[in-house]
Amino acid sequence: MQGSDPDTNAAFSYSLVDGIGSKDNPLFSLDETGTLRSAVLFDYEKNALNRSIRVRVTDEHNASLETVFAIRVLDDPSDDLLPWVRGLNLHFDENGTPTLSFEAGTEHGAELLETGILLTFAGDQQRFPADLNGTGDPYLVSLDGLQPGQAYRYQAYARNQVGETLSAMGKLSIGDDSSPWWVETDSDGWVRDSWMGSFLPTESGWLFHARLGWTYAQQDEVGGLWIWLKEEGWLWSRADLFPFLYSNDRGNWLYLLPERSDALFYDYATETVR
Fold first, then answer.
1. What is the DSSP string of the chain?
2. What is the model's pTM?
């Protein structure tokens, strides 16, 4: 607040005073310099929208003037923002169970009512809520009980009092355990001389590859194979392409170097080995 006086050198002090129009004075504070602050947190949806205060301004000669001010509470448009979701990633735990990680939240401290994974299969949808009591950095949701040999689509979702936000959709194919993509194993359980080299498969989908080490492998619908490596993420190849592999994370091709090489891959995008 700022007072005015014909005397340009006048000094003013301000205060809240009782009288007509002062009913909401207790809800505010006013210092001597004229700075008005609310003493409580107003809620546009729950509280009265119009407030009234009575203010006295006094100059250095103790002359004063009292005025009633009407204060209107406005809605904060930031409260009307939808929640956000980002960073949706698919990986598999040590048991081969598909697990999705993602981040979700709201702006300006709004309450996040629910977040999780929306799974679509054959026209039906199922929600897998995340634990809101965790850190959420990121949220983790395991997809248990999926049917072998089926294709699913998944999205992360987040909901607040305004509405719901969905992430981009991903696709997940569950291999048919009754017909593994490899032909047969030797008596010691190893698969040797396949198009992918030699490896030891397990029932969970994990396999130990003689060159790549531990990896998770998932067959797709076009005769290809998605394999997951901790350092590389998801790689894709096929019998007529291997040892060339496409990196889903980097968006370029890699070449699996021979066993005699110290490095594992040649990266065509960076023209380097690692």
1. -----SSTT--EEEEE--STT-TTGGGEEE-TT--EEESS---TTTS-SEEEEEEEEEETTS-EEEEEEEEE----GGGGPPPEEEEEEEEE-TT--EEEEEEEE-STT----EEEEEEEETTEEEEEE--TTS--TTEEEE--SPPTT-EEEEEEEEE-SS-EEE---EEEE---TTS-SS----TTS-EEEETTEEEEE-TTSEEEETTTEEEEEEE-TTSEEEEEETTTEEEEEETTTTTEEEETTTTEEEEE--TTSSSSEEETTTTEE-
2. 0.45
Q: One digit per residue, pLDDT tens: the chain, 274 residues?
A: 777 777 777 888 999 999 999 999 999 999 888 899 888 887 776 777 889 999 999 988 888 999 999 998 887 665 568 999 999 998 877 677 889 999 999 987 788 999 999 999 888 899 999 999 877 789 999 998 887 767 889 999 999 988 999 999 888 877 655 556 666 778 888 988 788 888 998 877 889 999 999 999 887 766 788 889 988 999 999 888 999 999 988 889 999 998 877 889 999 999 999 8
Domains belonging to the chain, first-starting first, are 12-75 (no CATH), 79-173 (2.60.40.10), 191-273 (no CATH)
